[in-house]
Amino acid sequence: TQLLEQSPQFLSIQEGENLTVYCNSSSVFSSLQWYRQEPGEGPVLLVTVVTGGEVKKLKRLTFQFGDARKDSSLHITAAQPGDTGLYLCAGGGVNFGNEKLTFGTGTRLTIIP
Amino acid sequence: EPEVTQTPSHQVTQMGQEVILRCVPISNHLYFYWYRQILGQKVEFLVSFYNNEISEKSEIFDDQFSVERPDGSNFTLKIRSTKLEDSAMYFCAMGLAGTDTQYFGPGTRLTVL
C-alpha cells in the first residue's frame, strides 16, 4: 500500500515569509501532483512533476520531485494571504499513466497579514 | 485548467435509498475516476473507468456501488442502498490518456440521514 505523509500538518506564518512543505513516502511514484483545496470544493491542480529531480516553478511557488521519486516539496516565497489554503500532494501509480492517485494527509497553510 | 462539472452539488437522502451522482466529462479526457473525502479526512480513491469498463476499484467500492456512462457523455456513480457512513464529498476526476494528471470536479456533498 502506497502512503504519502505531508508535513507539517498545520503551518501559520506571517505575510512575506518563506515556507516549505513536504510530501514523503517509502514508495516510488511515477509522478507527483500538487493540488490546492478550498473548504467545500474540489482539489485544483497546481502542478505535475514526473522526472526524478524535476523542479517546476509557478510564480512564487517552487515544486521539486525527489531524485528517487519518493518525495516532493513545495516552497513558497514571500507568502501572501491569498496563499492560505489546504495543499495536497498526490502520487500516481507505480506505472506511469492513468492509474489512481494516492493522496497525502494535507498541509493547512495560514498566512497572517 | 479544464473544467469538470458535477451534479447535484448537494444531496440529502435517507439511509437505504439509492443515489446517483453525475459528472460531465471534458472533451478528449477519456479516463474517469471517482474519489471521496469524508469530512476532515484524506481524499480516497474509489474507482477508475475507461472504455466503458472499470479499470481498478478500491476496497471501498463494494457491491453497493456502480459506475456507468449510460449515454456516452455523463459519467455516473450509483450507490444502491446508502449507509450513514457513505456521507462524504464525492469527486469526479478526469484525465487524458498516457498521463497521471487528473482534473477534479467541485464535488457532490452527500448526506445520509
Keywords:
heterodimer, A: 113 residues, mainly beta, six-stranded mixed sheet, globular, B: 113 residues, seven-stranded mixed sheet, four-stranded antiparallel sheet, 11 strands
Overall body shape of chain A: globular
What pattern of helices and strands is seen along the backbone of chain A? EEEEEEEEEEE
| Number of DSSP strand runs of chain A | 11
* Total helical segments of chain B: 0
Helix-residue proportion of chain A = under 10%
Tally of extended strands of chain B?
A: 11
Structure class of chain B? mainly beta
Mean pLDDT metric of chain B: 93
Mean pLDDT of chain A, as a whole number?
Answer: 94
The interface involving the most residues is between: A-B, 27 and 30 residues
Terminal CA distance of chain A: 40 Å
How many whole angstroms does the radius of gyration of chain B measure? Answer: 13 Å
Which class of secondary structure composition applies to the elements of chain A? mainly beta
Q: Tell me the radius of gyration of chain A.
A: 13 Å
Quaternary form: heterodimer
The percentage of residues in β strands of chain A lies in: over 45%
Q: Count up the helices of chain A.
A: 0
Main beta sheet of chain B, described? Answer: 7 strands, mixed
Helix content of chain B: under 10%
Following the backbone from N to C, one meets helices and strands of chain B in this order, namely EEEEEEEEEEE
Fold topology:
The complex is a heterodimer of chains A (113) and B (113).
Chain A: E1 5-7, E2 10-14, E3 19-24, E4 32-37, E5 44-49, E6 55-58, E7 61-65, E8 71-76, E9 85-91, E10 102-103, E11 107-112
Parallel strand pairs in A: 2-11
Antiparallel strand pairs in A: 1-3, 3-8, 4-5, 4-9, 6-7, 7-8, 9-10, 9-11
Chain B: E1 5-7, E2 10-13, E3 19-24, E4 31-37, E5 43-50, E6 53-57, E7 65-68, E8 75-79, E9 88-95, E10 103-104, E11 108-112
Parallel strand pairs in B: 2-11
Antiparallel strand pairs in B: 1-3, 3-8, 4-5, 4-9, 5-6, 7-8, 9-10, 9-11
